[in-house]
Queue: 3 jobs
Job 1
Amino acid sequence: MAVFICPRCAHRVAGAERAEGHQPRGCPSCGFGFVFELMDDYYAGPLTALVCCDRDRRVLVAGHATTTLTGWAEGDLIGREVAEALGLSFPGSPDDPIARAIEWGVRVLAEPCAFRPLGLDADREAVADIFPAYDDDGGLLIALTPATKG
Ligand SMILES: [Zn+2]
């Protein structure tokens, strides 16, 4: 059963609700204009930044926790290539996990990464979960969770 997640508030909606006509117009919790379809359920933590991109990896929505985590205001991220905008890198990966998710249409889960918060001189370690969109627009959702120390 499909699950939808709101990129703005991280509210999750089960696919059954969509069949009943309550979806996919928008988020029933915060009223945001669209929800992102996931193949399987996913829980975004309170510090997990949710960023939606188009098929060219340009930021469409810098939603839930993004400003808290990265320091960037949404308006400064929209339209920019996501990895460049967030200083996102995947030092341990043999390929580009974002490209892998887009080209193969697969989820990439718990991929270690680093990003550069606004105003800092050092990268911060995080874990990325990357979800391809299943609609014709072919974008993706990136969930960035800060790595826990220790
Ligand atoms: Zn919402």
Job 2
Amino acid sequence: MKKILFVVGSHRKQSFNMQVAQYVKALLDGKAQVKFLDYADMPFINQDTEFPTPLSVQNVRNEISACDGIWVFCPEYNFSYPAVVKNLFDWMSRPMKQGDTVTAIEGKKLTITGAGGKNATKNCREKLSELLKFIKGEVFDFSVGIIINTEAWVTNELVLTNEQKQKLQKQTEEFLKFID
Ligand SMILES: Cc1cc2nc3c(=O)[nH]c(=O)nc-3n(C[C@H](O)[C@H](O)[C@H](O)COP(=O)(O)O)c2cc1C
């Protein structure tokens, strides 16, 4: 079974993007092995402390190397993606060994989903796609944007419409083919 690594671009306990990720995890049940990437303890990248590689960074690289595909669930922060996501991929754009050029992210297949306000994370998804391509990821050209239902901002419970569920179903099926 293919291994898909889920990256949630929000560490908030009741994150809507985490809720979408949980929904997609259920869609993938029996079709792929899903693992959530734990990257909350990564330090900010600083070339002074790049080598020897910090343990938290090494752990993330191991997870990325071991998966067949990466699914990023990402909120939009001020017309772009959050800093934690940039930091994660900045680390992944760097060589695994000093003086080498091989990175963990090169050639990895990725797809993006974003839950946010009324533009459905359009700017985040565009910019994140640009970043991932720049660091030599193979980005699946079909991303899904979710507009968070109005009540959720009070209840913290995301309720997906049938249309949103259908889009996620399509993305799931197409991404499985893409990584096959
Ligand atoms: C610093 C910051 C900037 C934000 N900027 C945007 C934005 O540009 N567009 C948008 O749709 N939502 C924006 N939001 C609102 C987020 O969509 C909202 O907080 C959402 O709940 C974040 O995703 P999460 O629930 O997965 O943590 C912003 C939130 C924060 C904290």
Job 3
Amino acid sequence: MSFWQQLPNPFFVLAPMDDVTDAVFRQIVARAAAPDVLFTEFVSIDGLQSPGREATLKRLRIEPGLQQPLVAQIWGMDPDRYYKSAQDIAALGFAGIDINLGCPERGIVARGCCGGMIGHDHQVAEIVAAIKAGAPGLPLSIKTRIGLNTIITEEWAGFLLTQDLAALTIHGRTVREMSRVPARWDEIAKVVALRDQIAPQTVIIGNGDVQNRTHGLQLAAETGVDGIMIGRGIFHDIYAFAHESAEHPPAAHLELLRHHLDLYEQSPTKSFQPLKKFFKIYVHGWPGAAELRTKLMEATNPDEVRTILTHQVG
Ligand SMILES: Cc1cc2nc3c(=O)[nH]c(=O)nc-3n(C[C@H](O)[C@H](O)[C@H](O)COP(=O)(O)O)c2cc1C
């Protein structure tokens, strides 16, 4: 029995988001209101098995003191590299491994990776076998969509459910749809019904357009999924996983921003510029927020941000 079987029902997961859910931001989300499970950003097995692997390994940093299971998500093509990457991930101490079979990025899909692998059953079965051989003790999960160009939910999930997975996340859109249409939770419900027939041991996680815990609880009740994954909802509400909906004053948001800066400075060096995309998460929705954000965007280092915040809130 893996950790996936020991979670609350329904449980809540922070979605993997490239360039967003790094170890620093995961700590902030967990501090604001913790999900039950977290994922890394997707990590290339080609990068991981290359001579310059140090850069890729930074994406597999496990935050200190983490209380919840953290799943490493990987992507690529070559079964042998999946095998070696699974060994690496087991050695690093992750709670589980997830295969990305959903990313719609054009270049990646054109190479037949991620979302481009949807419908390629034989190839996926080989990769699943390679990972299980590389990390026999770790639960394996897959995150995918309901089709590449057209909806093939039952055919595709029907195959995946024969792979003895610990968990299966279904993002209720096709690859071609990117994020342009509302997520189809009726398709996700079909996967739950299939799971009941084919693979009762596999937990099903629904994903797409969930705003917060209350919204997720409603969708879980409607569809029967075991878990709910929230991605962009966290941009609008950093407290999206909170059990009680409460008002969080601007000062609480700014405290999270300060903490983000502190953790950023303690983490392996990264450039300051990409940090700015987080400002909107902490500074929005109150009078003066837009003006403050404009000032923050002009900062060139964490200390300048701190100075602006000090003058702002005394
Ligand atoms: C900025 C960004 C980066 C993403 N990176 C990944 C990723 O690395 N791996 C993955 O499986 N999905 C990735 N996704 C997709 C999300 O995990 C999720 O499936 C999608 O955003 C739909 O859920 P949501 O409506 O709750 O955001 C990314 C999405 C966004 C917005």
